[in-house]
Structures are given as C-alpha cells and as structure tokens.
Amino acid sequence: MTTVRVAGVGLTHFGSHPDRTGRDLFAEAALSAGEDAGVPREDVDELTYGNFMGSIAERQGHQAPLMAEAAGLACPATRYEEACASAGVAVRQAVRLVRSGEADVVLAGGMERMTNLGTEGVTEGLAIAADELYEVRAGITFPGAYALMARAYFDAFGGSREDLAHVAVKNHANAVPNEYAQYQREISVETAMESPPVAEPLHLYDACPITDGAAALVLVSEEYAREHDLDAPVAVAGSGQGGDALALSDREHLARTPAATRAAEEAYADAAVDPDDVDVAEVHDCFTIAEVMALESLGFYEPGEGIGAARRGETTADGDRPVNLSGGLKAKGHPVGATGASQLVELTRLLRGDHPNSDRVQDARVGVAHNAGGTVASAVVHVLEVVA
Amino acid sequence: MSRDDGRAPRPALRADGGDRAGDEGYDEWLAAVAAGEAHYLACPEGHGWLPPRRICPRCGSTDLTETPLPDRGEIETFTVVHVAGPRFVDDAPYVTAVASFGPVRVTGVLRGVDPAAVDGDSTDPARIEPGLAVELDVGETATTGERVVVLRPAER
Q1: Which of A196, A201, A254 has its CB closest to that of B76?
Q2: CA–CA separation, A94 vs A98, rounded Å?
Q3: Which residues of A are known to be catalytic?
Q4: What is the full DSSP assignment across A325-353?
Q5: What is the DSSP code string of A304-315?
Q6: Does A198 contact B120 at a Cβ distance shorter than 8 Å?
Q7: Which of A185, A275, B60, B113 is 20 to 30 Å from A172 at the Cα level?
C-alpha cells in the first residue's frame, strides 16, 4: 500500500463573503492548492468534495461536478455530506483512493457558503444535522445541542463557564497572525464571560462564527511525488472514522464522544503512533465544550480532565501540546463543509514550517486533525507525519 | 416507505389540518402522548427507542414491543435557548431538556417553569434542574403552532 503525501494546500480567507458564490470560493482554494503542489490539472484523477447545506444556501445540489468544472478539472467528482465532518470524510475518501492504487492524484476539499442566509437562516440550516423528528422539533438548535452536552459534562465531571472561556481566549490568540482567519484579534476571559447567552450555559464567545470559505488539498501517491520530484514532506499516515446515534438522547453518555474515540483509535493504529507521540493538534471546536471532549476522545486526557487544559496552559501556543494553532473553528471560522479539509491545510503548513505559528512547534513531526459532524454522530481523525 | 403492507391508510394527524404528508410512527407516538398513553419500543435486551424503528441499533433485535412509558421522567440535562431558529423564534427564550424515562430518553420543551428564572449558567448543583421529575405532554409552539413534545414538572 502506497503512502499518501500532501503535495499542496490551499485556502480562501475565512470570513463574511456574502456575495461570493460557492463555485468561486472553491475555485480559489483549488487553484491555490494546485499552485502549491506544482501538479498539472490534467493529472488530477478525481475530486472528493465536502459540502453540507449548499442545497439550502445556494439552492444548488449536484455540486461536485460543478466544483470540478470551477477548478478546471475534467475528472470524476463526488460530494460527501457528513454535516460539519463533510470535508474530513472527503479527504478520507481521497486517502483511500490513493492507497488503493485507483488514483495517483486526488483533489480533496470542501466549501460552505453561509453568511448570505443570515443568523436565523443559518440556525435553521445547521439544525438539519440533528434528528428532525425528536430533536429539532423539540427546539434543539446546534448551539443548544452542545449546551445540553456542556451541562451534562459539568454535572458529570465538574468544570465551569470560566474553563470554557479559556478555550476561546486561547484560540482567539492563536488566530492573530493567521491571515486566513475570520477573527484576528485577542479576547479576554471577561469578554467571553460577559458575552450574551446563545443557549445557556454557552454564550456568544463559546460559539464559532458563521463563515464563508473553502479549502483544498492535493493528495498524491509517494511514487507520483518521487517521479515528479515534488516537495511533499508531509504524509497522511493515518485515517479513522467513527459513528454514533444521530440524536443525543439515544447515546449512552451525554458528555462523551465515542465516535471520535473510535476514529482516533483507528487513525493512531493506522499510523502506528500513540496519543503521546502527537506534537500538535487541530480539533473541532465548533463550541468551546467540543474542544474539551475532543481532547478526551483523542486520548490526550481522561474523561473529565480535558476541561482545564487551556486554563492550565497545556494546550496554549507555548504549552506542551498546542491545540488549534490556526485559531480553530472558534476564531479562524467554520465554513461547515470546508472545515475538515482546512484543518489539514493548517496542520500541513504547521508541520512544513510555513505557517505563521510554525515557530511555536519547531520540532513537530506528528499532527492530528479531529473533525466532527453534528453532535459527533460522525467523526473523522487524520494523523499527519513529517516523512521527508 | 410504501403502504402496500396490507394496512389501511391512516387519517391525517396534523393539528392544523394541513395536507402535508405525515411522519408515520412519529405522528402516532405524538398522538399517544397527547392521549396520555405514551409508549416506547423495547427490545428483549431491554433497550428502549422511540418510533419509527424496526431494529434495535444496539443489539440488532427486530423483536420490538410497544411498551408503556413510565409516567415520570427525570431531567438529565437542559439548556435555555436564546437564539432560536425560525420555527421557535417567538418561543425564545425557552428551555429544552433531555429527560430519562427509564430505558428511553425524551427531548422536549420544558414548560411550567419560567425560563427567565432558570439559571442555565450555574454549575451549583443546588441551583440547577437536573433530577427534576417531569411528565410528558404535547403542546404547541408559540411561533408556528406546530405540535411540540412538552415536559412539565410532575405534580407532587
């Protein structure tokens, strides 16, 4: 089985671009990834593309061929939808295609257009990731669902809003030098604590913003990279995916995310690494509490111990294992169907040394990306490793 | 799912008399809750689920039996929702809670409690509501009049 290399990465600015079409956003990210890779477009064998709510936001279904066309590709294209994990799944499928030998070069990525819908429209759009019959009709919103998990976490393990505020403060600080981030500004614990409630106990600064953006990666086989003399020092060493009941009420535990635990175990085994080997991580902090549960599912902390990680400075930029040096979904932004790919773009740059925060993790060799769908009814974990 | 299983077509169950197609299984469950006859589906291993369901996701059993839901449940977690979607915008702020009724949990809007008086931020066990005994009911949303699963504090 061949090793998959990241040949190139590309992003659009993450932010409010209400007038930009999805096809234009994705084309920008794809062009950027192609240029970074130095791979001619005719060599791309397939496009795997993540998108969640394009049928609502742009009334556009059947997006994959549209995006291939926009990216200048004449190849088969498939859209993957797994809510906020759509692009993570798309990358995973690209990894499988290259590993199986069916493709030498795959463009993997995702796009989401959101701000044109307004807050109410986005709230309704995001809710379709939850169980329509038994959750959405009972008033559950996306923040509401994570608020239910946060409350359950506090009751089971302790912790407080202030612990969560430290996660937001950390991720905002990390985003400051990131030119692609939606919010390149620091916030204080007080600002986070005093922000208005969205779904108690979660307040405005516990939540990721509404974001437009796209991300793309060119993944190639090790053989292709060698034959074409590509500079592709980072490999996708491991990939894993897990699933769970869609409705929170049908899960065994309301404050844990076993789908992510299973995805992490599979990815670690695939890459032959342990949680202790991980130098840097990008995790799915759609809400501050989500980062806490991600750290526990990734095996960095026991259940109940992740809540204080940011406050204790263990996951900050100068901590032992920096988490979300990009700014995370929280400050970098969360264009839902692009996020899973954008995490791997950020991680690749952090490991290659060309990220503005690379100097925070100078000797890093192993990075992990954790991408979750809905309230983690689906989860994808990838391990990246510097191999050249 | 097709209706060619020999069963008679069921009457429309929408409260507003609208002609939108229903959600078979869910609609009947909601009607049963409204009639005070709430039930769940139990598999022989004791796992509980809400309809429609043909197979127990935990053990794979297809031998699911309609079983009366316990009269009282207990709130496990809740949130005070301030930013609502369009279908609940006039209901906000409202409390959505997950309550355990033995082998099955039910999510509903908590009524009979003033949302403004609920401290959804507090982590002081004495000031929060998990453990509150609740009964199941069906109400309507203020925004659209759609039927909604309601949890009410149980009468002592």
Answers
A1: A254
A2: 6
A3: 84, 334
A4: TT-HHHHH---GGGHHHHHHHHHHHHHHT
A5: TTGGGTTTTTSS
A6: no
A7: A275
Interface predicted TM-score (ipTM) over 0.90 = yes
CA atoms within 13 A on the CB side of B56: 20
Q: What is the pLDDT of residues B66-117, one digit of tens each?
A: 999 999 999 999 999 999 999 999 999 999 999 999 999 999 999 998 888 8
Q: What is the dihedral of CA A11, A16, A21, A24, to 10 degrees?
A: -20
Residue written as tokens 């501050």? A288
Between the alpha carbon of residue B154 and those of residues A112, A145, B29, B78, B141, the distances in Å are: 44, 24, 21, 16, 21
Per the prediction, chain B carries an average pLDDT of 87
| Coil vs helix vs strand at A75 | coil
Q: Which of A137, A210, A254 to mutate to test the interface with B (most CBs of B within 10 A)?
A: A137
Q: Minimal Cα–Cα distance from A314 to chain B, Å?
A: 24
Which residue from A121, A133, A123 is spatially nearest to A199, judged by alpha carbons? A123
CA A338 distance to own-chain centroid:
7
Most distant CA pair in chain A, distance: 57
pLDDT, tens digit, 9 for 90 and up, residues B118-139 = 888 877 655 556 678 999 999 9
All residues of chain B having their beta carbon less than 8 Å from the beta carbon of residue A200 are: 79-80, 82, 118-121
pLDDT digits (tens, 9 = 90+) for B38-76: 999 999 999 999 999 999 999 999 999 999 999 999 999
Query: What integer pLDDT is reported at residue B119 of this predicted model?
Result: 84
- Between chains, do A154 and B23 touch, taking CB under 8 Å as contact? no
Binding-face residues of B in 2-21 toward A, CB within 8 A: none
CA-nearest residue of chain B to A197?
Answer: B82
Sort strands A234-243 and A378-386 into parallel, antiparallel or unpaired.
antiparallel
Instruction: Give the pLDDT band of residue B10 (cuts 50, 70, 90).
Output: very low
pLDDT score at B123: 72
